[in-house]
DUF6973 domain-containing protein
Amino acid sequence: MRLLRLVLPHPLFSLLSFHATLQAYSIAQKKFPKTASTNGIGNAFRHALWCCFIMMYCCKISSPEKALAFCKRMTDLHEELFPNKPLETKMDLHNNTFGMDYFMELLPGIHRQFFEKNFFIDGLEKKMKDAKILKNLDDNFDGFLVYLDEK
């Protein structure tokens, strides 16, 4: 029911978000085949990229504010509908927020109609160099991608 309440009023946003999901997953799998589907650094990249792509596509048909509100609701709902362990959920929500914040950070310098996927792919790959390992629920790494140490 909650998913329908989100997608039915926003059919275009929903379709664009689905496309963004497929794109982000495909790119992350190619770049990080060992960690994109686990809790490693590739997963952090995938979640941030996913949110950047949702924002990029939705901003092409609406305002950044509406796209941001939808993206937040969609990605939060995804975490609720497909629950993980608490630390994994914290990591995913953190990286989703990181992706939305990164998009909004770039927005003033580039008209939203001219965003391309490579802006985010290249930028997030650079930001991965400073990613932090999330070890407990009290960790706070605002401004950094986070992942779990899978050793």
Summary: The longest strand covers residues 132-133. The mean pLDDT is 92. The chain is about 65% helix and 5% strand. The longest helix spans residues 11-31.
